[in-house]
Amino acid sequence: MSVLSRRPALSPLAEARSWVASQAREASAPASTAEPLAEDLRVADPVPAVMTARRAGWAVPAEATLGASPYGPVPLAGLRRILAGEALPEGADAVIPPDAASDAGRWFEVTATAAPGEGVVQPGAHLPAGQVLARAGERPPLLTRLLAAGDAAAMRALLAPLSRVVLGPVADPAFPGLAARPIEETLLGFDEARRPAAMLPDDPAACLLAWCALLAPSGERAEATLARKMPSQPGLADLVLVRLEEGRAIPLTAADQPSLAAFARATGWVEIPPESEGHPDGVGVTVHLFPPFLVA
Q1: Burial class (CB in 10 A: 0-12, 13-18, 19+), 270
Q2: Per-residue pLDDT tens digits for 173-208
Q3: How far apart are CA 176 and CA 222, in angstroms?
Q4: Is residue 91 helix, strand or coil?
Q5: Can you list the positions of beta strands (E) in 169-259?
């Protein structure tokens, strides 16, 4: 999905939303309610089954990048470019951004130090094996069926008829990336038939959050008090999954580490603007609620 060269300029989330609104088509009605389950719906295998990339970049052994910086590049041989959702190659335990390494001929010059596990989704981090998503006799809502799908490709197939633009490859990007964590790798533009289209991130949690934030029918909002501090790094907007309980918004994950398990508990998400360093606990926040048909 992503072009792994220099990272293109990322577009503000508000501009992307305005573009979607101007191009939107009428989405189909949600699928009919599922039949009652004959048995518990459990996660059979951990998601992911192996260590995968959270977003596009270069797969590296973290230890080998120690001390790397733009002023003191570290030479490494045999680096591999990797896309979000791909399994890490043997020996790699971190992923650095696309612009943190460059081909210098016989080796690559790495300009960023990585910590073990950085940019990586550990096995079972999205959903552990054995987690119960719905009990026997229940009619699982669409969100539960999306979580059970487990990967971005299967999610896109379920979400396509409910989306305000085509879900699929983008031949002519209007927005080659968004300035919002964790949905930076969302592409918006036109497909080969000149239809407005969106390519959602390959990380399943980022895929689902991007769809909710951009392509789902507009949902309701609720005002709440933040239950605990919500840190952020200025420069990008942050979308943070939260759960509403008695007027309090409880953060479930960091913006750059969403998980399907957090989606299973979430009510919606809070958006932190790109100029902010985060929200202190006790402050009032606006919660963007999931569309009713997603959770009912």
Answers
A1: buried
A2: 999 999 999 999 999 999 999 999 999 999 999 999
A3: 31
A4: coil
A5: 172-175, 180-181, 187-190, 196-199, 221-226, 230-231, 237-245, 248-251
* Confidence band, pLDDT 50/70/90 cuts, at residue 1: very low
- Residues composing the chain: 296
Cα distance between residue 207 and residue 1, in whole Å: 12
pLDDT over 80 (residue 45): yes
The CATH class, in words, for 52-121 is: mainly beta
Give residue-wise pLDDT tens across range 206-250.
Answer: 999 999 999 988 779 999 999 999 999 889 999 999 999 999 999
Domain map of the chain by residue range? 13-36+128-215, 52-121, 221-295
Angstrom distance (rounded) from CA 132 to CA 107 = 47
d(CA 124, CA 139): 25
- Residue 161 is given by DSSP the state G
Bridge partners, residue 53, by sequence: 120
221-295, CATH topology level? Beta-clip (2.40.340)
In whole angstroms, how far apart are CA 156 and each of 79, 99, 152, 160, 265? 30, 28, 6, 6, 21
Q: Residue 118 is encoded by which pair of tokens?
A: 């950085």
